[in-house]
Amino acid sequence: MGEENTHIPDGLMDPAVVVAGWALALPVIAFAIYKLNRNVDERMVPFMAILAAGIFVAQMLNFPIGGGTTGHLIGATLAVVLLGLYGGIVVMTTILIIQCLLFGDGGLTALGLNLLNMAVIAPLVAFALIKVLGRGFDQNRKGVGVPLAAWASVFVTAVICGGQLALSYTISDGAFGIDGIISIPAMAIYHAVIAFGEAIITTGVVLFLSKVAPETLEFGFSPKEAQA
Amino acid sequence: MNRKSYAKAVIVILLAFAIGLVGFFALSAAFPDGLEKVMGDNGVEEGDPVYTAPLSYGDDYGGALLAGIVGFIIVFGLVFLYLKGMRARDKA
Known about the structure:
The complex is a heterodimer. The termini of chain A are far apart. Chain A has helices at 15-39, 44-59, 76-103, 111-133, 145-171, 180-212, 223-226; strands spanning 63-66, 69-71. Chain A has a two-stranded antiparallel ribbon with strand order 1-2. Chain A is globular, with a radius of gyration of 17 Å. Chain A is mostly helical. Chain A contains seven helices and two strands. In chain B, helix 1 (3-28) packs antiparallel against helix 3. Chain B is extended. The two termini of chain B are 26 Å apart. The relative contact order of chain B is 0.09. The chains are: A mainly alpha, B mainly alpha.
């Protein structure tokens, strides 16, 4: 696979943005760990471990989106749909830490930003949309919750990453990042397409599980939680 | 889900990964992802990494398959042991 970095590498963002990434991500992750520790269900343990490992390998499988560009699953929506918000945050955090420390995917200093984007923002966007729209297979729902949440989780995260590039560029006078006039629309356009891949894969896996192992859909959201 | 179902799930995921990896090397391996593309289009180079990881995703099918399986086992093991530890602590 040659270049390992599919996440934000070291030296791309301004140090102040890097520090802000850590400062924003860590309290949310700590809170999610605290909440999960209090609420983890024995039945969830092997399922959560397999899901985390499955998302890890799925992230390695980039798919082409045309124009010599590829994208890969983030998996935050899948994790949130199946495990709830706190489980989703913890699973994404574990994956990103292992990718960074063991496989060199994403810079060590940039890990805070990668955690903020993919383990905090993406799960929060997915959770918010699922709370509003439902998961799609819940009673009286029209089936748009999961794909829309998956699409939006990638798109919003990418736009925010474009914003981080822009902020880095501005506060460093061009030494770091990329001008926001370019970075935000470019990240938005590529990831608007990549996000369709996220929506298709996430919806496919959820529909598959709803057929072969419907009980797995009850771990994350209680019926009350899923129906907002 | 029982133990047999979970074993089946692991086999299905790893088989899907092994098949997906064929498509990855046929269609995607040579091309950048969204962020790399935006960086490349704007002539932004990656900085020098401050840390060198012990493993890599591999450069060929066999290497990537092995990396995926190793990563799968490590992620699975870490999440499983952590959650089991939490459950054991709660019961104590």
